[in-house]
Amino acid sequence: MANAHGEFIWYELMTPDPDASKIFYDSVVGWTIGDRPSQGMDYRMIAAADGFVGGVLALNADMVAGGAVPGWMGYFGVDDVDATVAAIVAAGGQIHLPASDIPDVGRIAMVSDPQGVAIYVMRGASDEASTAYGRHAMGHVSWNELQTTDDAAALAFYDTHFDIKKVGAMEMGEMGDYSFIANSEGGEAIGAVMKAMPGVRPGWGFYFRVPEIEAAKARIEQAGGTVTHGPMEVPGGEMVLNAIDPQGALFGLVAPGK
User: Fold this and answer.
1) How many Cα atoms are found within 13 Å in the side-chain-facing hemisphere of 58?
2) 181 in Cβ contact with 192 (< 8 Å)
3) Can the peptide bond before residue 37 be classed as cis, meaning omega within 30 degrees of 0?
4) Using only C-alpha atoms, what is the Rg of the chain?
5) Do 139 and 29 meet the contact criterion of CB atoms below 8 Å apart?
6) Long-range interactions of 106-114: CB distance < 8 A, separation 24+
7) Can you tell me the distance from the alpha carbon of 254 to that of 79, in angstroms, rounded to the nearest whole number?
8) 0.90 cut: is pTM over it?
9) Of 195, 171, 192, whose CA–CA distance to 254 is shortest?
10) Predicted local confidence at residue 97, as pLDDT
11) What is the pLDDT of residue 40?
């Protein structure tokens, strides 16, 4: 894996209805999500115009009984999965799926940070760098946003274990700071950390880049999704919105400004 330790290298939608999710996201974001595999686990690749950007995992009855809910998950690339998992547990995190090897894919584990936010850590088998995240790449995740119960503790945790640095902040009144984060000191911001808004389940949220926000809003509503916030202009001039897909997974969209 050519990505630096702590970079986002993959994104995964967990959904009880991959066929419906394919119809929805292919329409809304412009992806091509693969069809159901002929055998084995129902896991489908998500392709943007310039390559793969993520996957879709079908939630089966056992997963749902174990507490799994529809949603998007992020994968952090790490140099050593087992060492990272051990350090996270020592810092107060928990293991949800122990480290294991997937042939031709890599070694992965699912853990949660000390505030209870679930993440994957992975050492990919490929020598090529992942391009799933692309700040300005159409159809890719363009922004990674963590809403958490303790933003100061979360910033310290992701700095310590993933070398993710705070590189600035925007004040939000009683909500505190919207802290911008990057994979290196002085690097381009890849997202932000903030206190969880009332009624929002803490977790990482992801914004997919589309060409135009109003047209995307119309596609969400036509396809059975719900826009919960926006569209609105954010500092820097880009347009964003937040939404829920028909199966209940939260996501965001970002587009160039008007």
Assistant:
1) 17
2) yes
3) no
4) 17
5) yes
6) 106/1, 107/81, 107/82, 108/75, 108/81, 109/81, 109/85, 110/73, 111/85, 113/88, 113/148, 113/154, 113/157, 113/158, 114/153, 114/157
7) 30
8) yes
9) 192
10) 94
11) 80
Contacts of 61 (CB under 8 A, 6+ apart): none
**Mean pLDDT of each 10-residue bin along the chain, 258 residues long:** 92 97 98 89 95 95 88 97 98 97 94 97 93 97 98 98 96 91 94 92 96 98 96 94 97 93
The number of residues in the chain equals 258
| Whether the Cβ atoms of residue 19 and residue 44 lie closer than 8 Å to each other | no
**Residue 254's closest CA among 169, 189, 200?**
189
Per-residue H/E/C for the chain? CCCCCCCEEEEEEEECCHHHHHHHHHHHCCCEECCCCCCCCCEEEEEECCEEEEEEEECCHHHHHCCCCCEEEEEEECCCHHHHHHHHHHCCCEEEEEEEEECCCEEEEEEECCCCCEEEEEEECCCCCCCCECCCCCCCEEEEEEEECCHHHHHHHHHHHHCCEEEEEEECHHHCEEEEEECCCCCCCCEEEEECCCCCCCEEEEEEECCCHHHHHHHHHHCCCEEEEEEEECCCCCEEEEEECCCCCEEEEEECCC
Burial 207-242 (b: 16+ CB within 10 A, else e): bbbbeebeebbebbeebebebeebbeeeeeebbbbb
* Pairing between β-strand 118-124 and β-strand 106-112 as defined by DSSP bridges: antiparallel
Q: Is the distance from CB of 130 to CB of 114 less than 8 angstroms? A: no
| 24/18 Cα distance (integer angstroms) | 10
Q: Say if residues 88 and 133 touch (Cβ distance below 8 Å).
A: no
